[in-house]
Amino acid sequence: MHIIQFLTLYGVVCGHFQQHHPHVNHLQKRNAISNKSNPIATQVLIIGAGISGLEAARLLQKNGIKTLILEARNRTGGRIWSIHSKNGHILEMGASYIHGIYGSIPSGLLTNPIWDLTQEAKIRTHATKQKDFLGSYQIGDSISAIQSWFNEYMIFVREETRISSTNVSFGYYANLFAKQKNFTEEQQYAFTNYLHFFIGAVEGAELDAIGAKGYLDINSVHYGRNHIFSETGYMALTDYLAKDATDIRLKEVVVKIAYNEKSAEIETN
Ligand SMILES: Cc1cc2nc3c(=O)[nH]c(=O)nc-3n(C[C@H](O)[C@H](O)[C@H](O)COP(=O)(O)OP(=O)(O)OC[C@H]3O[C@@H](n4cnc5c(N)ncnc54)[C@H](O)[C@@H]3O)c2cc1C
Fold first, then answer.
1. Ligand 1 atom having least distance to the Cα of 70
2. Fewer CB within 10 A of the terminal residue: the chain, N end or C end?
3. pTM of the model
């Protein structure tokens, strides 16, 4: 294993970023290995070139502070990763929605700052229609009927969890609710699909694995209106943030951080 100390500044940009930003190809990849007698220094070292690290670097650089980003993967973007299929579709492998546009986050009319960044970057986004969320799932009843079941169900779950001390799953309450409503098999199917989209898919877990009480305790701020990057993929935004952050090193996994009042030393593998 090589040990690298980052105490002198230089930039390396490669992988995804170089493919999409040929204008930075002129940056030379210099010998990345240094030793304690030849250290590499920077004012601020950022670990991770996800949206947080990239935006931090951008804001610091805007204020004249030198940054160096170390990223473990061979691309920027982190959990934002858009891939383009051969037949021209964009597949979002990570984030796809901006939740909360134009002050639509219900608690306090807030706007998601990602929306503001998207406007600044002049990236076109689109609203998603309710029916698009349901994709190929069959809906026997109209969307508005299912939405009103959903609203009723959430009130039901809130009330149940308020009087219960146990953290029972959304799936359990869904069955209970369906029985009370006397749903037909088809209605229950449509209702459960809706729950899968609005709770299961957002949380990345099956309804039976999400404790309703715990979820409602931490989810008091509900998402606002959504937009997606259907023309470019979400990575258009992280690429925008990355384009001026010239000191990004890919394939650098930070394995150790040691620091004192004067400095910090970072080791990568
Ligand atoms: C499937 C999925 C769907 C999602 N959908 C949405 C959505 O629709 N809307 C939404 O707003 N959010 C969504 N999210 C959440 C959103 O993607 C994340 O909140 C956001 O991307 C986090 O950004 P970040 O920069 O904080 O972290 P990350 O994107 O995780 O970036 C951290 C970076 O640090 C790097 N790193 C970690 N350890 C090291 C190390 N030791 N050395 C060097 N580098 C390291 C990682 O490789 C990574 O690139 C989704 C997430 C997933 C996974």
1. 43
2. N
3. 0.73
